[in-house]
Structure formats: structure tokens, C-alpha cells
Amino acid sequence: MRCWAEININNLYSNIDEIQKIVPKEKIIAVIKADAYGHGMLKICDALIKKGIKNFAVATSDEALKIKELHNDIMVLILGPVENEYMDLIADKKIYFMVTDFEEIEFLEKTGTENSKTVDVFIKIDTGMGRVGFQENEAGQLNKILKNVKHINPIGIFSHFSSSDSDKEYTKLQERKFKAMCEKISSGIPSIRYRHLHNSFGTLKFQESIEDFVRAGIIIYGGVTDRETAPYKFKPVMSLFAKISYIKTLKEDSFISYGNTYLGKAGKTYATVSIGYADGVRRDLSNKGYVFYKGHKCEIVGRVCMDQLMILLPEELEGVAQKGDVVEFFGENIGVAEVAELCGTISYEILCGISQRVPRIYVEK
Ligand SMILES: *Cc1c(COP(=O)(O)O)cnc(C)c1O
Fold first, then answer.
1. Which residues are annotated with the PTM N6-(pyridoxal phosphate)lysine (predicted)?
2. Atom of ligand 1 nearest to the CA of 158
3. Which of 78, 284, 299, 333 is most buried when burial is the number of CB atoms within 10 A of its CB?
4. Are β-strands 309-313 and 296-301 bridged in parallel, bridged antiparallel, or unpaired?
5. 25 is a catalytic site residue
6. For residue 96, what is the DSSP state?
7. Which of 3.20.20.100, 3.40.190.10, 2.40.37.10, 3.30.2350.10 would CATH assign to domain 238-363?
8. Residues 12-23: tens digit of each pLDDT
9. Angle between helices 61-70 and 41-50 (to 10 degrees)
10. Distance between CA atoms of 205 and 202, rounded to whole angstroms?
């Protein structure tokens, strides 16, 4: 293997234990969209079921169908939009989805009349994320309509924080809006039994307002720093590794990689590593990132190529480094959040950007 992502299931379990300091596992909806943030949806789902998690959320109908096919006894909620032509199949499979506007309610009522079925749905409301969901000024009308529907059984309401990691005031405002809108929408409708609002950072920082569930994603995978999650501690589930394929000590100064952006120095030793941007190592890390190798942080030099990249070996490793040795891009020694920051993005994007070409190796240690 030239490169691989090691997925540490024990760290996954430890992260669930950490969330259980805040809510019991019955209240956790594990978010496993986008192939479980790049960790492998089916394997992560299996492991979480073993750990006693029974509720899951995905983003698309295809993800939901795949998971429900293998585990019929778990609760699966789709967090993204469901196209009309999927709704019937999704409901038949007892997968939960959301309605976000009056048009969807109309559609479900119409098809329900035709096939005499009733579907369970969650009502999605917009409390400030500004993505999808019923608006505050629609709450009254929604309540009226839901009291009269015949083929829709609203079982819950949820909404999403936009800035629970960064803006306390705004998050508090969302909490208040959520409460008020829920009251208005569910008034006189006893079938609406479940409410949930909290994502990972909401769960850590706004515990008082947790209701029936939390939807935890990034903290399950440990794509966070201790600083932002204190006093809680999450462990990285994914570590990214690649092998050294070539080592040279330059006899004279010469350029390294595309575009001649880095001039290698005579006498210095450079190693080529078998991973590149097609694997998910961002090109932003050219002349900027580093890898962890035998106790040292080694700089990435020159541009990251599609399948390979070069690193500078510190003096201590000259003559020690060997072809076939393994270097870490992120994991126990370099945080994925640190890498994300160098790339001007968030850990989420780095994790789900590790491409399908990279084998996932599951370990319990
Ligand atoms: C992705 C997503 C989550 C999980 O977010 P994290 O920040 O990873 O915890 C929760 N709710 C919704 C609606 C989402 O789209």
C-alpha cells in the first residue's frame, strides 16, 4: 500500500463515551453522511451499533437506503432534501425525512390520497441557518395546515445551528426561536413528540437546551482540537499515512516539483512520499504543510503533485530514513484541524476529501 487511512475504532468508542458524559446514548443521533465524514459509512455504522447507538442521520436518499438495507432495525433520518420521486420509497422503508416547505406538504397529501398511505415526517424549521426549512412567519399557517392533513403524520421538529462553535449570542437567539416556533407549530398536534437542534458544538456548549436528541458529527470522528472542546476530549479516529518511495541528497542546488517554487539545497536530503492531491492531500499544503516522521515534523517542499509529494528531511534523519518508511499526514501527532487551518478550511472538508483511492484500514487498538 502506498498510502492509507487508518480508522481507529477504539477512538470512535472513546468519543462516544465522551458524548455520553452529556447525554445518554439513546439521545445520540450519529451523523454518518458523506461516507461517515470519509471514514466509511458501513463500517462506522456497524461499530456504532455494537456500541449501542440506534439512531443515525445521513444527507441523501441513497445513503439512507444503503444503510437501512443492512440494518433494518435502526432509526435513519435524512438531513438533506429528498426529491419527490424518492419520497414514497423512503417512507415505505421506514426512513425518516424532513419537509421544508408547503409545496412538499401539498405533494405528500396528493400522493397520499392516490395511494392511501400516511407518512411520518419531521418538520424542518429555519431558526437562523438560512438554508432550508419553514420560516418564523410561516409557523401559524403551518400549524393550521398540519391540523388538517390526512396523509402526513408529523412526529417531530428540528432545526440547525449555524455558529454554535463561534457565536454564543446568535446561538442563544436560535435556541429562543426554536422554542417559540416549536410551541406554535405543535400546538394541538400531539403526534409531534421529538425535538432536536444540537450539532456537535451545540451539544458541548449549549447543554441546557438539549431536548430529545443531539445530532453529533465531527466530535464522533475527533476532527476537533482540545482547545475548542475543553473540558471534553475527543480522539482522532482517522490517521492518514503514506510511504517514502525515494530518497536523495542533492549534490548541487536544484528545483523540486512543478513550477520551480522551491529551490533544493546542495547537501540537503529530500524524500518523495507516495500520496498527492488526488488522494486528498491538499495542494494548499505546497511549501506550507508538514508530515510527522520518526519524531520530527518534516516540511512539505515544492508543489504537492497529483500522486506524490516531496519532504525535506532534518539532519537527524539523514542516513536514517529508508525507502518504505511510513510518514503521518494527520492523526495522533498532527491534528487534522491543524492541517485544515493551513489549507484555509475546516477539518470536515479535509476528512471527507480523502478520496476513494485511499484504502481505509480498520483497527481496534
Ligand atoms: C451535518 C449536520 C450535523 C452534524 O454537524 P456536526 O457539526 O458535524 O456535528 C447536524 N445536523 C445537520 C442538519 C447537519 O447537516
1. 33
2. 13
3. 78
4. antiparallel
5. no
6. B
7. 2.40.37.10
8. 999 999 999 999
9. 50
10. 5
